[in-house]
Specification:
The chain is an all-alpha fold. It contains six helices and no strands. It has helices at about 1-20, 45-60, 60-80, 95-155, 160-185, 195-204. α2 crosses α4. It starts with a helix and ends with a helix.
Length: about 200
């Protein structure tokens, strides 16, 4: 009996060791620990706004004026200044390098600003399309309601219709009065003189 117990204990021990060595999954009710990053992090939105500002400045006349002034001063200084103060002699290779560097940075910045503007335009167009769809739906609903009201008003006595009916009734009443005065007897309602008292009693 004892060897069997030892064998069972030996069999359970590896299972416990395996469970202990199993990697623990992160709990969902706790935030993940911060991971160490070797590369610096930056805010894409802040970089995009900066690129838009730079691209907006590059597309103004102020930038062209300042760049022209800098180039003229650069060339004049390296031509008229004493030899030991010149830093970029003719043919101004350093100036060409700086202008190439400026152009190589300006082109991606302008493209990034254009991409951000395209994204904003796409979002605005989508919002305008949804707004137009809602406006069309509201207009169709109001059109149906107005048509239903018109159909309902067609079956209701309006003020003009009642006025015309009253005018017709007054005109007929005046005609009856004129006939009674002309003939000396009532035309409408029917004469009661033709009916005898006995007939009244029979009717009762």
């Amino acid at each position: 009996m004892a060897p069997e117990r030892e064998t069972g204990a030996r069999e359970r021990t590896p299972a416990g060791a395996t469970a202990a060595s199993r990697p623990r999954t992160p709990r969902l009710d706790q935030p993940r620990p911060p991971r160490h990053r070797f590369l610096p992090e930056w805010d894409p939105e802040a970089f995009g706004r900066l690129s838009e500002k730079i691209a907006r400045f590059l597309g103004t006349g102020r930038f062209i004026v300042w760049m022209t002034v800098v180039i003229i001063l650069w060339v004049v200084w390296n031509i008229a200044a004493p030899a030991f103060l010149r830093f970029d002699n003719y043919p101004f290779i350093f100036l060409t390098l700086m202008l190439s560097l400026q152009a190589s940075y300006a082109a991606p910045l302008i493209l990034l600003a254009q991409n951000r503007q395209d994204d904003r335009d796409r979002v605005n167009l989508e919002q305008d399309r949804k707004q137009n769809e809602r406006s069309i739906a509201d207009t169709e609903y109001l059109t149906r309601e107005i048509a239903a009201l018109r159909l309902g008003l067609g079956e209701v006595a309006t003020r003009d219709w009642i006025r015309s009916e009253l005018q017709d009734f007054i005109r007929e009443a005046k005609e009856v009065e004129e006939r009674r005065h002309r003939g000396g007897h009532i035309v409408f309602p029917a004469k009661r003189a033709d009916r005898s008292p006995g007939s009244d009693a029979d009717d009762r």
